[in-house]
Amino acid sequence: MTTPLRGHCTCGKVAYQIDRMPLFTHCCHCRWCQRETGSAFVLNALVEAEAFTVTRGAPVDVDTPSESGNGQVIARCPDCHVALWSVYSGAGPKFRFLRVGTLENPDLCPPDIHIYTASKQPWVILPEGIPAMPEYYRRSEQWPAESLARRERVLAAG
Question: What pTM, to 2 d.p., does this model score?
Fold first, then answer.
């Protein structure tokens, strides 16, 4: 796969690019994500903030509650209000959880794992060959070594 990957909101006022492939892509089936998206799940690709650039416009940051109680900030287009990415308090500002559906080619970022499947909609059929966890998981057991190393490098940079 080649980078950069580009994406934008529905109206096109806010656009972005990422210069590296995502570290890992979550398909989250928790009830909070279902409520936030109005869908059965959300597909988030985790990327380093340093590899992420807004190329057009300026999103608005919306403080949003989360099940952990620590909240998240969702970057939305100020006009069409599409959610483009989140910054979760647990991961911190060095990472973005990019909404895969906003990519120009979302096919390039299929889920690496399904999480919180204990609360998935019963009609959603999970594909074989992709890990599925009833709740969350241990990163060290699921992420590729390269992604773990990239994450550690970002965290060590201070």
Answer: 0.92
